[in-house]
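User: Predict the complex.
Assistant: Input components as received:
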Amino acid sequence: MAGVGESVSTQMGMHTEPLTGRDIKTKFTLENEGSFGYDFARDVDFNRRAEIDCADLEPTAINSKIRELMDSGHGSIVVRNPGAKHSLVVGILNRMNIIVDGSLGYFGCGLLDGPTVRISGRVGWSFGENMMAGVCVVEKNAGSTFGAALRGGDLVCKGSVGSRTGIDQKGGTILVGGDTGAFSGFMMQRGRMVVCGNAGKNLGDSMYDGTIFIGGEIQDLGVDAVPAELTDLDRAWLIRKLGMYELLPEQGVDHFTKIVAGKQLWSYDNLEPTEKKLVL
Amino acid sequence: MCGIAGLIYRDGARNIGAEMTAMLQALKHRGPDSTGFAMYGAPGPNEYILRFKVAEKEDLGGGGTKIHRAIAERKAAVDAVLEELGVDVMELDEPTEYSLRCRISYDGGLKALADRIEEVEGAEILSIGNALELIKDLGDAADVSGAYSLGGFTGTHGIGHTRMATESDVDIRSAHPYWAYPYNDIAVVHNGQITNYWLMRRQLEREGQRFVSDCDSELLAVYTAVNLEKGVTLEESLRRSIDEIDGVFTYLITTGNELGMAKDTMAAKPMVLYEADDLVALASEEVAIRAIIPHEIDTTDPYDEEVRVWQA
């Protein structure tokens, strides 16, 4: 019998690709522990500005162009004529400014960590999915699953959003100027969601933790989502946060309903794996 | 995942052939296997448009001369059926060797006509309608539109589908949209899965309905047609479907003068809606709507259990 470490599967012809010559480099070392940035992030200058005309480009080419401009030090990029194309402005791990002059399709601005993005139009499904840090502001409406699995940063839609907003939200803040659809906050784990308008059915269904604030009517609450007292601290936070994005209602924030988890379904440990290690 | 799209003009006919082609081509990334159109032209009095095929496109590949002879024989057999039923064929087009379009005058029942044509081996009806013309074939929207000369199609409304084959074959038989056999002018496109499909199909078949595929989308067409025949409005039928049909779905359905939309209770399938004074356009992605309206527009995502109907 072959010993551990011998290439038995290769000898059997199961795969034949060479296992050497890869250029994957170690990204994180003990020396840079404690740094919240990425050593491999581009060194960009916010005062260096460039524009991309997306009219005749496919999504992959547009994202490549953004990276090329980042490589050459541009810290402010204007994306013109995006034409509601999908998967644009994704996976950017830099602090920088991106202005989208128009609308994005589905999976826009996913997997971001750091940039500030402003979108003058509308966005499609799963906008800002899994964003870790940064700010995204959408001036018009957004599709469903806005901010799915959001981990950090501020995700703002000044219009209305679709269903399942903030599904599986794990942190960060979602702010909506208009209404939100059914199952918003479904399986929410951490973070805050603020909706100035109405919420559809099953709000906060099966939420483990986190806080939802609704300014309008709530069609109904999901399983284990319960109303809670709006504290002075909540009011102060709402005024500050909504004010930052010009979403503060004229009548203030006293009318907001606060929803939290009843915690009857599951005793949820709300620590991230990395934090658990620190506590232990 | 497939892509669906629809549009309806509220103030008269336009070149919807070119517009539907542009919308569906923009959704090619959601399904490149086949593309289908259900479009509504100007209906003539006592006239129907009959669209049918007598072979699959792929049959031509390896069939040698035998398939060409079979196609000719099948066409002749359908001709004989039409003559026997007293159908007056006023216009005949053959956009491809295996598909035909006939403008006919006919006084009898559509079921009798459809059943007799489908008795011919290899003959499958795509649609019969006063205004409906259903065209579907392999390839993307530009391929199909080009092959069937749809670029100049004038009409008031239409729906379309780009298919990514999952369970069934890549062939015309499995392509969408689906006509509600044998009902006049009813067609459907659908995104999603209907989980009580067999239960409902069994019920409808026991009531005498006939299905021409095993695709769950067809159920929505037949279900709606049966409701309409009973005097139920399209809007009410769409509302009932949300209660009676299980699964996750968003679908568009058309009649001679209406376009309807329904979204299930979970709202799990995409739809983007644009409404203007003269035009309503819907699609799985906004990029399809932007293919016919290049400038920035305000669109919305319909919510769960939302039902809408627009008139041409």
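Chain B touches chain A at residues 29, 265-268, 270, 272, 285-287, 289-290, 294, 296-301, 303-304 (CB under 8 Å).
Let me know if you want any component modeled separately.
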